Amino acid sequence: MRFAIRxxxxxxxxxxxxxxxxxxxxxxxxxxxxxRIAYIDPLSGPFANVGQNxxxxxxxxxxQLSGVRSPGNPAGGRFDVTGFDxxxxxxxxxxxxxxxxxxxxxxxxxxxxxxxxxxxxxAVSKHNARHPGAEVIYLxxxxxxxxxxxxxxxxxxxxxxxxTAMKMKALTLFLKDQPQVHAVYLINQNYSHGxxxxxxxxxxxxxxxxxxxxxxxxxxxxxxxxxxxxxxxKIRQSSADAIVTGNWGADLxxxxxxxxxxxxxxxxxxxxxQATDTPAALAALVAQPDSTEHPGRSAGQSMQVYTVAQGxxxxxxxxxxxxxxxxxxxxxxxxxxxxxxxxxxxxxxxAQSQSTDPVRVAAALEGLSIPSYAGTILMRRSDHQxxxxxxxxQWQKIDQRYPYSLENTGYTxxxxxxxxxxxxxxxxxxxxxxxx
Length: 436
Fold this sequence. Notes:
Oligomer: single chain
CATH architecture of the largest domain: 3-Layer(aba) Sandwich
Number of strands: 15
CATH class of the largest domain: Alpha Beta
Number of helices: 14
Strand order of the largest sheet: 7-6-8-9-10-14-15
Strand content: 15-25%
Radius of gyration: 21 Å
Number of domains: 2
């Protein structure tokens, strides 16, 4: 069922928020302070296309919201984002973090890989304990292992994205109402995120659709598979009538291309199908003629592709304007909506704390609630996991209602279901250790 986001309620929230933030703002804007953020993610290697796009997203949002006091930047300060290449590896992430701290950065952001994210979170906590007065805040925009806000939570770590458990809760709630799905093939990257996708999908099925069978479960090396044809052949040989994958970057794009080459058009449920280069591969796959008939789908029926995310490809308002301006500037897609929420949360915390000092900003971020493009978002105090709406979006041809063409394919992701924050929230298991 399609829906319209409740614009009136969001506008009312904005009005109240602006009044509060305006009252809280100090001389931060007049002082000309610039908050420097170190972006630590792969800018080379197999995931460089995603890393470079997301760096540009952070830089673009920072430049667009900087320097002018507004609902998006109530503190009125400036933000500057600098990229550090970690090649997607934990050790290189630590090297990049050390270089950033040596250069005076007090805020870091990272997202491409929970292994790298855990290494950064641990190193930031140790640094802050050893160097009072030079504390650093880690803004996690995409590393989704639930442990990072669970048993490995850190006071200095704030996650801007729904974790794997939250996303899978939304996806399995959606699958519960898809009676045509009876047998699922799982294919994921063999690291913490991929393993967590399997775990939480299996758990969700047991609660909501115990009749669905898992007929395949492959975990493949992260960023090392160049040809997914053998996996496509295994999927074809199974009795699967749907595929679920948490793959991202080249590992998803190459998987889609292998499905295309095999003429295999099973319904595909994803986490990251909107990311760089994957939409173009999806357009080729969906557009090709069927070569075989699959269980639960007649030959000639178009392929269904879904993604679970905190947004979809046709946002309105300020975010929609940013998306269009980003594409006009870089000729790439803007899909890292977490950068938009991240800059705005930082500015709101700085306005509330009347400071850019990470110690005071961290305290203000805890429990902070602001309006966003899909309703109110809340940085939960107990574990620093952002509470937010999630969408199930479906790949379809553009139309009058949803006209935004991803990667100029003539296709787009449109919202088919929205889950409110309370529905997709999971219990906090964090034993937060706060500074004395």
